Prior knowledge:
The structure holds two protein chains of two kinds. By secondary structure, chain A is mostly helical.
Amino acid sequence: MGRYVIRRLLFSLLVILIITLLTFVIFYVMPPTDPARAFAGKQPTPEILAEVRDQFGLDEPLFKQYGRFVHNIFLGDEFGWPGLGFSFDSRSAVKDELFKRASVTLQLAIGAALLWVVLGVSIGIISALNRGRLGDRAAMGFALFGVSTPVFFLGYIGLFIFWQTLDVLPGTGYTAFGEDPGQWFLHMIMPWAALALLYSAFYARMVRGNLLETMSEDYIRTARAKGLSERKVVFKHGLRASLTPVVTMFGLDFSTLLGGAVITETVFNLSGLGSYAVTAVLGGDLPVIMGLVVLASLAVTLMTLVVDVLYAYLDPRVRLA
Amino acid sequence: MTEKLLEVRDLKVHFNTQDGVVKAVDGVSFSVDRGETFGIVGESGSGKSVTNLTAMGLINKKNATISGQVLFKGRDLLELGGDDLRQVRGKEMSMIFQDPFACLHPFYRVGDQIVEAILAHDDVPKEQAKKRTLDLLRAVGIPQPEERFRDYPHQYSGGMRQRAMIAMALVHNPDLLIADEPTTALDVTVQAQILDLIDRVKTEFNIGVILITHDLGVISEVAQDVMVMYAGRPMETGTRDQIFNQPLHPYAWGLLESIPRVDQKGTRLLPIAGAPPSLINVPPGCAFHPRCPHRFEPCDKERPEFVDRGGGHPNACHLSPEEKRRLWDERETRRGAKV
C-alpha cells in the first residue's frame, strides 16, 4: 500500500510535468498574444519590448525557458517556493495571489461539496426506497430542475429574492472567515447552494439508480433471508455497495471544481481561481496561466489518488499493488 | 414418527406486469416432513423458486397477488406481518441459493456475514457469535476456519462459498432448509460434496430440506419425495421410486427420457419437443398439452385436476391409470429400456 502510494505520487509528478509542457507549448510557442507586448502596455517602443523580453528571459531559447519554469517550481524563485513567477498583469508575484484565490475557491468547493453529497445521497435514497411513489416523483422532479437550471440563472434569482427582495442575506462578494465568521457564512451560503443544487441533482439520480440496482442483487436477498431488518438491509448491505461509484464520481467533480468554478465565482463576485483564470487567459498573463495549470493538475492527480486508495478500502476486491 | 413441517395448500402467486398477469405459481400443494428431503424439479420458469421465495416471504407483495396457504409448524406464513415473518426467516426456516458468489456480500468478511446472521435473532456477545461461527465453519468442512473467517467471499472457491452459505443457514438450528439449485453453479465433484453435506446436516440437525433443482440426477440421489412442476403447476408428486420407476405424467416421462441413466445403458435420449409456455399466456386446459404426444380431446379445454388416483401418487393428467401404464410401457420398450 505504501509503495503503491509513493509510485502513484511519482507518477502524478510526471503527469503534471507533461501537462505543464503542453500548456507551455500552447501559450509560449504558439502564442495568441505576444507576452512582451502584453506586459509592456499600450504602444510600446521597440526598445521597451526588447527590455521586457530581456527581463523575463523571453528571448532565450524555449527549452531554456521551460527548464527555468520547472526549476523554479521545484526549487523556488525570488518570491519563495514554489516559484511561479511574476504576473504581467498585476506586476506582483503569482504565488501570493494564486494562493489567496485558491483559498476562496477551496472554501466554495468544500462547502458546496458537503451540501451536495448530503443532499444528493439522501434524496437518492429516499427516491429509491419510494420508487414510483410520490416521494420518488418529487425527488426526481427536483433532480430534473437542478440538472437543467444553470448556475447563472439560479444565482441571480437567488440574489434577487434573498438579497434585493427579502434582504435576509448580504449581496455578492467575499468576507474572510478571520474577519467576521458570521458574515463569511452569510456570504458563502448562496454560492454554496447554487453550486450544490446542480451537483446534488446529478448525485441524487446516480444514487437512486445505483441503489435500485444493488437492491436487486442476490446478496440483498441473502441479507433478507437471514432475517435482518429492512433498515439494516438497505443501509448496511445496499448502500455500501451502491456508494462506491459515487466516490469515484465525487473525486472527479471535486477536483474539477478546485480548478475554479468560473460561473459561480462571477455571479457572486468571489475572487477565486475561475475568474483569475479567465482574466489571465484573456490578458495573455502567461505566468498566471502556468501557475493555474500546475495547481489544477495537482488537484486532479491528488484527488484521483485519494479516490483510488479509498476505493480499495471500500471494496476489498480491489487490490492495490 | 414423522412431523409435518411445511404444508403448502393451493398456493398461487401472480405478478402484475405491464405485459399482463404472470402466473408464476398457479395452484401448488405439497408437504414436507422433518428429516425428509423433498425435491422439486422442473424446467426454468416452472415456478419452483417462486414457490419457495414466497414461503420465505421474499416476494415483494406490492406487485404480486398471493393466495393459498403456507402452513409452517401450524402457522400460516402468508398471514404473518413483515416483522413476525422476519422472526421466522433465518431462524426457523432458512434458505441457500443458486449462485454462492453473488449471494455473499462482496464487501464484508465471510465470518462477519455469518456473525451478522446470528446477531439478527440472538442477542449474544459478539465473541460468542464468533465462536459459534467458527464451529459451524468447521462443521461444514471449511479448513482453517480461524483464517477463513477473516477472508472475503472472493477469496473462497465456489464450493467453499456454498459451504459458508450452508453454515450461515444453520446458525439458528432451523427446522427447514430450502436449497434453491444449490449445486447448479458448481463443478460436478463439488456438487457431490455439497449434496453430501446437505444430506449430513439434514440428519445431524434433524431438519426438513426442500431441494429445488432442474437436475433429476441430483433428485435421484438425495430426495425421498419429489414434485414435478411445469408452468407454475404441479404435474406429479410421489416418492422417488414412484417418480423414477412408475412415473404417471407424460411430462415426467419426457423428463426421464431426456437424461442418461446409469441403470439403463444403451438407451436413446429423447428431448421433449417444443418449449415451455409463456407464463402470461399459459395454454388453456392442461399447460403441457401442446407438447404432449398423448393429448386427446379434453386436454386443450379442461384443466386436469391434481388428484391422487390411488397409491399416494397424485398427478394432473386426463389419461386413465390403465392407459398411462400401457403408454409408459410402450415408450420404455421403444426406447430400449425394456426388453
